Amino acid sequence: MNHSLLMALVILSPLIGFLINGFRYKRHSANVAGVIATIAIAISFVSSAILVTDLIAMPEESRRIAVKFFEWLVIDRLKIDAGFVVDQISAVMILIITGVGTLIHMYSIGYMHHDKGAAKYFAYLNLFIFNMLLLVLGDSLLVMFVGWEGVGLCSYLLIGFWFTDSEKAAAGMKAFITNRVGDAAFLLGMFLLFVTYGTLNFSELNALAPTVAESSWLGAVTLGTLFLFIGATGKSAQIPLYVWLPDAMAGPTPVSALIHAATMVTAGVYMIVRLNPLFIMAPNTMMVIAIIGAATVVFAATIGMTQWDIKKILAYSTVSQLGYMFLACGVGAFGAAMFHLMTHAFFKALMFLGSGSVIHAMHEEQDVRKMGGLKKYLPITHITFFLGWLAIIGMPPFAGFFSKDEILAYTFNSPMGSPILWAAGVLGATLTAFYMTRLMALTFWGKSRVSKDVHPHESPALMTIPLITLGVLSVIGGWIGVPHVLGEYLGHIPNVWEHWLHPLIKGIPGWQTLDHATEFALMGTSVGLALISAGIAYHFYVKAPDAPKKIAEKIKPIYNLVYNKYFVDEVYFGAIINPLVNLSRNIWYYIDVNFIDKMTYLAGDLARGMGSVIRSSQTGNVQQYAMYIGIGVVVALSFVIMR
Amino acid sequence: MILSSVVFLPLLFALIVAVWPKTSSIRHLAFGFSIIEFLLSLRLVQLFDSNTAGLQMVEKHLWIERFGISYFLGIDGISLWLVLLTTFLTPIIILASWTSISERIKGFHVSLFVLQTAMLGTFLAFDAIFFYVFWELSLVPMYFMIGIWGGARRIYATVKFFIYTFAGSVLMLIAIIYMMYLTQEATGAMSANLLDFYKLKIPFVGGAFFSLQTLLFFAFALAFAIKVPVFPLHTWLPDAHVEAPTPGSVILAGVMLKMGTYGFMRWVIPLFPEASEYWAWLFMLIGAVGIIYGALVAMVQPDVKKLVAYSSVSHMGYILLGLFAFNSYGMSGGLYQMLNHGISTGALFIMIGMIYERTHSREIAKYGGLAGVLPLFTIFFFIVTLSSIALPLTNGFIGEFLILLGTYQAQPVFAYFAVTGVIFGAVYMLWMFKRMFFGAKGELVADEHHPLFDLNFREVAVMIPLVLMIFWMGIFPNHFLDYSKASIDNLVNNRTNYNLTIVEPGAAEIMHAQGEK
Questions:
Q1: How many folded domains does chain B comprise?
Q2: Angstrom distance (rounded) from CA A599 to CA A590
Q3: Do residue A233 and residue A342 come from a single domain?
Q4: What ipTM is given for this predicted complex?
Q5: Which of A298, A296, A399 is nearest to A349 (CA)?
Q6: What is residue B264's DSSP assignment?
Q7: Does residue A211 sit in the same domain as residue A285?
Q8: What is the per-residue pLDDT across B78-123, written as a single tens digit (0 to 9) for each?
Q9: Of A142, A604, A641, which is closest to B133 when you measure between CB atoms?
Q10: CA-CA 20 to 30 A from A391: which of A196, A504, A537, B256?
């Protein structure tokens, strides 16, 4: 089929779905709205799949499908098309977005069954997919930015979906505004790159990227990529702009799975990978990215260990896992970042949907202290969640193992990485194993702490089918990226992933292959530590439930610090937001009302005084007299005309 | 004759309305007239040749020979869309004020049409005195509009509005007359023709404030700056807006403020290129400060109309910034932002009027939970909010992006400051939106004795064209920018030696004209 038509189908069918449900915004039926929305995304998925098949069939050196619909914004040197590209990187993204998207839409039919705003919900969800597709398919930074802000808008709408609750509405607003901080930096990055290179087109920018690394901090590439990265910290919830993501859990759970785990939050990673030839020439930026990524991995994981809300734990886990992707980018392992992006999309979407199933069964209860022993009520949810758990803690041969391990190996071995960063990554993995096991134990295992009024039940098939599908993907999803060292031992399994992305990924300067022994040692360390950590958590939360409390008691100051999320929100409010509001009030009262406005009255009085002085002064200058006459004539004339 | 028809047809309408015997049908009549005017102005787009920077559809007749004053109308890519904005908003305003203006309906519509003529004349006149007449004429109906149909403190607000703008324009008049003098000195014949003004080489001395070009520059700039209004000359605006009736606010924000920014583009920058360049930093600074200042003060307003008024200060700051960047991005963005602001701020005032009609309050704290009660109203308000915070695919984004890009290219430091406006803009709008539309129902919304009704058919009809423009201009910006490109490139590239040629109407147009006769 014609590529333009397919591309139009991919992008526009979610938009059409949005419009249909948007105009039916008053309808309640989740079935009708959900089916419309799911079909819209399914059409998009099928079209994407056909496009990607065509892409695979193309010869490797010219593997790229570009479609230009019209010229969007043309001024002077700025030429932005409504142009879209499917290549090795965006192909992966559109499959994830529409594939996982279809599953989550389907799941939502069951989840939102009793909600009166179902049509609105599905409209927003479709609009999100539309914007996300613009983001990943756009052929220039500006088209990407359109989607970038668009997904932010949908995130805002969906977080605040139950808007009568003021707190939820506030969470939506917080997400949008925090993201806007990043977006402002993104804009600056675009300006800088445009002024430097005269284009915002990805392939042109990548082609124009310098061939020698830029050492200065203030060079155009370094500063430009740094600004873009600040934009990424907003969208992808990294330090210091991650604060909106935990609050974003106020939205319906499928939204958390789709937007705040699998797709939107990975946009920052995607953007960096898209521009990897540019980023890799700015070692300072790369260093910042790696450090922020590693710091976020550990920081968020520690908070995740202390939370009680099932969705909040998963949210901090997402922040932490996104940190791995940035760590990978920062050490130049862009392929590994994309790989983890994909596997994470599978297992984290799975766990969010699983938590949704739990919350559904528990009648909107999210506190894990009130759960326990749910294994026997929710067998399918438990099994699938279990698979996700194995994947995220990095057990071979589950998906997370391959991607996380690749990142750690690169971090250790890349000239841009370091053993310290690697240690942070391993520490993160160890903590992950702990809090994830804690989550499993508190929710599904051990004794039931469920209140007697609640009768948990397994979710309907509409919800369990997506769980099973994602469960399978969490198991096998990593097999397309088997590291060479394992592949060789297991009978020459090729690393399909690396081969596929290779044409678009710049190699790391000074890269040397790791010897097998070290690679196995690294693998063994992280898996071993994760196992130990998981074992401890299992012991704490299943065998000896009193132990964690005692330990928390012993390290109370530290525990409270972590439990309260290091008081970052409080600091932001106390140091930035409240002072700004107070400042604005003072500006309004003292400067606007009592100074500027008063001054103008004063100026008026002064002018009147001066006027009388001038009037009395008769200079005898003929020209001036003529001028006065002129004024008189004109004024008289104007009066005549006005009458 | 088309430009004369466009400019003076509303005056004729005003006359007809003034003598119309039946009060009950005045609204219908006025609405019909305004639609005719709009359709006529669409014809301008059709006749317009977007490939030339020259002045088109020119009508020029010597009026007062002794002073070289002429009746001189013309149109180019800079004025085209501003004319369309004016004619587009007028029927919307009439429809929006259908029930809110209940007294002196005749006088109201007469004022509106006179005002329309004045605004259109301002955008199309190319003779300084002719321009000045329109410029001043616009004050009178606006004065009445606020003074008669305004709120409680309307007299205070009108006097303030009038004195402020009048003070500025007197200076401008002196400058205009002085320039007429200069033409006499240069050519021997006095002329008020703007094209002759362009040809003047006015001496410029860089550092000296009391040098000719600098003084003339500031005389014009001050008049326009007050009209815009730029920080710190803005304090008349919140008072005028709060006291003005909805249609007054819409015209004021939608069109009249643009007379100021248009003045910069048409008069200040091409007439005094060296002074403009020398003082560009000052105006960029004022623009950047205005963006942040307006946004911060808007954020803490308890009155929603005042909030939007201060947001205007912020948005107009962007325009100033773009114009003084002196490149195609900034200028195009500035022009685009004029249209955007007219549409989105106009729409915001209209909607504030709609809700005010229902509750008689503009206090944000008394609202809350509107989204659950008035879904249609909420959807429209939200779309306009998005346009105001410059979300991509709405018109606001194109303007803001081009302006900031242009600013970055010209003076990065101002772009770094101004870009914070992107954040603050979202803060004040979304915070207001949250307090009014989300959360628990506020006292006005929960009041069982006065249940609120969602938008009726007329109100939806008012909003639909505005929303369509928001998306059209956001999704297909080239449809609009293509018409102004030639004129803006001419202004940017030939600033120091600016001139406009008069384009003789092509054969096809002559045939059209004959056909019409």
A1: 1
A2: 12
A3: yes
A4: 0.93
A5: A399
A6: I
A7: yes
A8: 999 999 999 999 999 999 999 888 888 889 999 999 999 999 999 9
A9: A641
A10: A504
Chain A residues near residue B391 by CB distance under 8 angstroms: 149-150, 153
Residue B451 included in any domain: yes
Q: Into how many domains does chain A fold?
A: 3
Residue A271 has pLDDT above 60, yes or no: yes
- When pLDDT is cut at 50, 70 and 90, the band that residue B510 belongs to is low
Q: Note whether residue A311 is domain-resident.
A: yes
A129 shares its domain with A15: yes
Question: Can you give the pLDDT at residue B23?
Answer: 84
List the single residue in B with minimal CA-CA distance to A641.
B133
pLDDT of residue A642: 47
pLDDT at A302 (0 to 100): 95
Three-state SS at B68: coil
Shared domain for A195 and A315, answered yes or no, is yes
Q: To the nearest whole angstrom, how far is the Cα of B312 from the nearest Cα of chain A?
A: 15
Closest alpha carbon to A278 in A60, A506, A471? A506
Residue with tokens 């908003």: B89
A182 in a structural domain: no
- Residue B396, domain member (yes or no): yes
Residue in this structure with the two tokens 């939820």, named with its chain if needed = A168
Q: Say if residue A601 is in the same domain as residue A465.
A: no
pLDDT tens-digit map of A13-28: 999 999 999 998 888 8
Residue B310 lies in a domain: yes
What is the distance between the alpha carbons of residues A634 and A438, in angstroms, rounded to a whole number? Answer: 86
Q: Is A205 a domain residue?
A: yes
How does pLDDT run across A450-473, given as a tens digit for each residue?
A: 888 888 889 999 999 999 999 999
Of chain A, the percentage scoring pLDDT greater than 70 comes to 94
Closest chain A C-alpha to B441 CA, distance in angstroms: 8
In the chain, the amino acid numbered B159 is V
Q: Which residues of B touch A592 (CB under 8 A)?
A: 235, 297
CA distance A283 to A287: 6
Torsion over CA: B127, B128, B130, B136 (sign): positive
Query: Of the candidates A425, A356, A439, which has an alpha carbon nearest to the alpha carbon of residue A394?
Result: A425
Which two tokens mark A391? 């994947």
What's the full length of chain A, in residues? Answer: 643
Same domain (yes/no): A520, A638: no
Contact (CB, 8 A) for B445 and B369: yes
Domain hosting B342: range is 301-499
Tell me, yes or no, if A634 comes closer than 8 A to chain B by beta carbon: yes
Are B138 and B118 in contact, with CB atoms under 8 Å apart? yes
Least CA distance to B135: which residue of chain A? A638
Residue at token pair 């308000």: B381
Is B513 a domain residue? no
Query: Which residue in B188, B471, B203, B223 sits closest to B340, CA to CA?
Result: B471
The model carries a pTM of 0.93
Pair A637, A534 in one domain: no
What tokens appear for A410 in the block? 């690169």
How large is the average pLDDT for residues A470-491? 87
Question: How many whole angstroms separate alpha carbon A325 and alpha carbon A266?
Answer: 9
Give the pLDDT confidence of A523-547 residue by residue, as tens digits. Answer: 999 999 999 999 999 999 988 888 8
At A538, list the tokens.
């299992």
pLDDT of the residue at A341: 95
Fill in the DSSP letter of residue B303: B
CB B330 within 8 A of CB B321: yes
Whether A219 and A261 map to the same domain: the answer is yes
Domain limits for position A57? 1-139
Of A194-198, A367-371, B506-510, the one with minimum mean pLDDT is B506-510
Name which of B177, B393, B416 is nearest A631 (Cβ-Cβ): B177
Residues in Cβ contact with A153 at an 8 Å cutoff, skipping those fewer than 6 apart = A131, A176, B386, B391
Select the residue of B232, B402, B416 nearest A75 (Cβ to Cβ).
Answer: B402
Q: Which residues of B touch A630 (CB under 8 A)?
A: 67, 177, 180
Residue that has been written with the tokens 């799941």 in this structure: A107
Closest CA to A314 of A443, A122, A492, A167: A443
